[in-house]
């Protein structure tokens, strides 16, 4: 019997946002890992490709979908999960390969690591003791 990992919804949404944004912070759309990216280079809208919580199998479309929108300093994310729709928004900053995001909806601040290959972002972090990995693809 599989045991489900339970993460509070607020942590999950914040962690997914962090994962997405952090992913964009570590590279450009050509696959490089230039640590000197600016917030202006990260502006865009991204679609969720997968979300993995702990050792559970990944959630992928159509089971779970999501969208992340980044401006030079703010984010908005919507996640359509089997448990329901979750939204969050707030501010973000990038420093080299380090991403920091602060939710305007919840009292949560997160940091994480990320890799970028072309327009595919992979973000790994830990929220409330649970490993979270999120993959996002930038919309054209």
Structural class: alpha+beta
Query: For the record, what CATH class applies?
Result: Mainly Beta
Element order, helices and strands? HHEEEEEEEE
Q: How many whole angstroms does the radius of gyration measure?
A: 14 Å
Terminal Cα span = 41 Å
- Quote the average pLDDT: 76
Major beta sheet, strand line-up: 1-2-3-4-5-6-7-8
CATH topology descriptor: Lipocalin
Count of DSSP helices? 2
**Portion of residues in helices?**
10-25%
Fourth-level CATH superfamily = Quinohemoprotein amine dehydrogenase alpha subunit, domain 2
Number of domains: 1
What's the multimeric state? single chain
CATH 2nd-level architecture: Beta Barrel
Residue windows where pLDDT falls under 50 for at least 5 positions: 1-5, 18-33
State the total count of DSSP E strands. 8
- What is the percentage of strand-forming residues? over 45%
Shape: globular
What would your notes on this structure say?
- There is one protein chain.
- With 140 residues, the protein is of the alpha+beta class.
- The protein has a single domain, classed as Quinohemoprotein amine dehydrogenase alpha subunit, domain 2 (Lipocalin), CATH 2.40.128.
- The chain is built from two helices and eight strands; from the N terminus they run H-H-E-E-E-E-E-E-E-E.
- An eight-stranded antiparallel beta barrel has the order 1-2-3-4-5-6-7-8.
- Strand 3 (74-81) and strand 4 form a beta hairpin.
- The longest helix has 17 residues, at 9-25.
- The model is unreliable at 1-5 and 18-33 (pLDDT under 50).
């Amino acid at each position: 019997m599989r045991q489900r990992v339970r993460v509070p919804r607020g942590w999950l949404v914040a962690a997914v946002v962090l994962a997405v944004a952090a992913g964009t912070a570590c590279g450009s759309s050509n696959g490089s890992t230039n640590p000197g990216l600016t917030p202006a280079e990260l502006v865009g809208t991204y679609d969720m490709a997968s979300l993995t919580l702990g050792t559970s199998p990944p959630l992928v479309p159509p089971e779970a979908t999501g969208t992340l929108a980044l401006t030079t300093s703010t984010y908005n994310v919507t996640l359509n999960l089997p448990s329901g729709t979750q939204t969050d928004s707030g501010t973000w900053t990038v420093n080299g390969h380090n991403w920091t995001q602060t939710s305007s909806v919840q009292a949560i601040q997160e940091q994480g690591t990320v890799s970028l290959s072309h327009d595919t972002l992979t973000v790994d972090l830990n929220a409330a003791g649970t490993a979270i990995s999120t993959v996002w693809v930038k919309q054209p």
